[in-house]
Write a structure and sequence with these properties.
Belongs to the YkuD family. 8% of the residues lie in helices and 40% in strands. The protein is mostly beta strands.
C-alpha cells in the first residue's frame, strides 16, 4: 500500500516581523526575520505632541478607520494616549513633524505593512 508523506508547518517557518521607527529621520523600517525588509518615509509628532519613544507592540488593527487615519490603523500599547501607525488623508505631511503623536504613512505603504504584520508585532520608536 502506498503511503503519502505527511508534512506539517511549524511555527519556525513563519516570518517574524518587527518595526523600527526613527523619528528624526522620518523613517519606518520593517524587519523580516531580523533583516531589513523595507524602509518607508513617515510623519511623526510635532514638538507639542511628540511621538512616544520606547518599545511597544501592535495591539489592534483596523481597515478604513475613517477621518484623518487613512486606509489602515495599527494601534500601539504606548502609555498616556491612543497612539498608532496609520495612513493619512494628507500625503503632503509625510516626512514632517506634524501629527498629534501618531506615525503617519502613505496609504499604499500602510496597507502593505498592515497586510504583513500581525497583532503582537514589536515596534521600537527612537
Amino acid at each position: 500500500m502506498f503511503r503519502f508523506p505527511t508534512y506539517s508547518i511549524s511555527e519556525d517557518y513563519r516570518a517574524v516581523y518587527s518595526i523600527s521607527i526613527n523619528t528624526k529621520g522620518h523613517t519606518l523600517t520593517l524587519f523580516k526575520n531580523n533583516a531589513v525588509f523595507k524602509t518607508y518615509k513617515v510623519a511623526v509628532g510635532k514638538a507639542s505632541t511628540p511621538t512616544p519613544k520606547g518599545n511597544f507592540k501592535i495591539i489592534n488593527k483596523a481597515i478604513n478607520p475613517g477621518g484623518p487615519f487613512g486606509a489602515r490603523w495599527m494601534g500601539l500599547n504606548a502609555p498616556n494616549g491612543d497612539y498608532g501607525i496609520h495612513g493619512t488623508n494628507n500625503p503632503a505631511s509625510i516626512g514632517k513633524n506634524v501629527s498629534n503623536g501618531c506615525v503617519r504613512m502613505y496609504n499604499n505603504d500602510v496597507i502593505e505593512v498592515f497586510n504583513l504584520v500581525p497583532i503582537g508585532t514589536s515596534v521600537k520608536i527612537y
